[in-house]
From TrEMBL:
<comment type="similarity">
    <text>Belongs to the esterase D family.</text>
</comment>
<dbReference type="GO" id="GO:0016787">
    <property type="term" value="F:hydrolase activity"/>
</dbReference>
<dbReference type="InterPro" id="IPR029058">
    <property type="entry name" value="AB_hydrolase_fold"/>
</dbReference>
<protein>
    <submittedName>
        <fullName>Alpha/beta hydrolase-fold protein</fullName>
    </submittedName>
</protein>
<keyword id="KW-0732">Signal</keyword>
<dbReference type="Pfam" id="PF00756">
    <property type="entry name" value="Esterase"/>
</dbReference>
<dbReference type="InterPro" id="IPR011990">
    <property type="entry name" value="TPR-like_helical_dom_sf"/>
</dbReference>
<keyword id="KW-0378">Hydrolase</keyword>
<feature type="repeat" description="TPR">
    <location>
        <begin position="343"/>
        <end position="376"/>
    </location>
</feature>
<dbReference type="InterPro" id="IPR000801">
    <property type="entry name" value="Esterase-like"/>
</dbReference>
<feature type="signal peptide">
    <location>
        <begin position="1"/>
        <end position="23"/>
    </location>
</feature>
<keyword id="KW-0802">TPR repeat</keyword>
<dbReference type="InterPro" id="IPR019734">
    <property type="entry name" value="TPR_rpt"/>
</dbReference>
<dbReference type="Pfam" id="PF13181">
    <property type="entry name" value="TPR_8"/>
</dbReference>
<dbReference type="InterPro" id="IPR052558">
    <property type="entry name" value="Siderophore_Hydrolase_D"/>
</dbReference>
Amino acid sequence: MTLTKKICCLIPLFILSFQFVQAQLETIPVNNDKAFLINSKVLNEPRSIWIHLPFDYNSTNDSYPVIYLLDGEGHFKYVSELVDYLSSYDRNRIPEMIVVAILNVDRTRDFTPIHSLLFNGKVDSLRMANTGGGTKFLQFIQNELVPHVDKNFRTAPYRILAAHSLAGLFGLYTKEMNPDLFKSTILMSPAIYGGNTEILDNFKPFLKNHQNLSGKFFISIGNENTQTVDSIVYQLKMFAPKTIDWDFKKYEDENHFSVTYKSMFDALKFIYKDWFIDNYSAAKLTSKEIQLHFDKLSDEFGYTIKGGEDFLNSQGYKQLRSNNIDAAIEIFKQNIKNHPESWNAYDSMGEAYMIKGERHLAIENYEKSISLNPNNDDGKKVLEKLKSENNR
């Protein structure tokens, strides 16, 4: 092989090596998670709590609905990821949410409201010795945990309780004892046995005595004994008021322990079944149509719900790209009203006014955007150009 051929062969290897060296490793995004202890006076013990916050929590002033997870250590990771996935711009199936996981100390004690030694029809003094702590555990949640979360985080007045297996017993008990604490309840393969079947028996009179009860129920079961779930579903069919929205799913290909992932996915989509607007649809919504959509959601969930920044920005640009400039401006105005701290909302408004030819208003909005984000270099360039044109 000649020297020339050797050099020719080495050049591609050199280029490949150079490109490899120049490539930068993309880091894995860090989850916005926190952990803290609550020294419970009710339970007379410290309780560990894990919290997952939306990705942009620290850069907005928005408030978020909250999902509380019993058996928190078993469900926190996948539910947090699922919430982020379903609430992302591409999916837009649910709102961004705060996830609160309650870690276990003694789940048999905490999840059973009634002291009973019966397990599967037999006395089990070892397994069931500490039953009957559910009343105190509910007091801990409603009097200590929820107030702490509401005080220290920007929560919207809408809570969801997710409960699996024995925690499902506690979830049903919580609804009977304090119906308004959690507006939606997710019961996944609830396990109710022994003396605590009294909670199941109480469900029928509870429903009959609460004919104005609102909220949502989602019940699921795997390929397992369905006696408990059948009873809950029957009582909902026969006695639930029309103001209750509920759904039931059986997953034949899942067992008692694997049923939770599909259940959470379907439950969240059920609770927020009216939320979805396809961000990739060619349909162009007006400001009034957008407001009507969120007004309906506000009525449904009982608090004011506003369009997210990215969603409104996207809808505004759909109008702008179609040369519906005034329609775009109305949406951008709505975005600024909802998210006055957003530099990008003002940047978009500045672009719309620039296209419309209203240079003064364009300058005003770009200046506001840059004041909120001094690193908006593209905005600085546009602003400089606008000012130079304005001085001619």
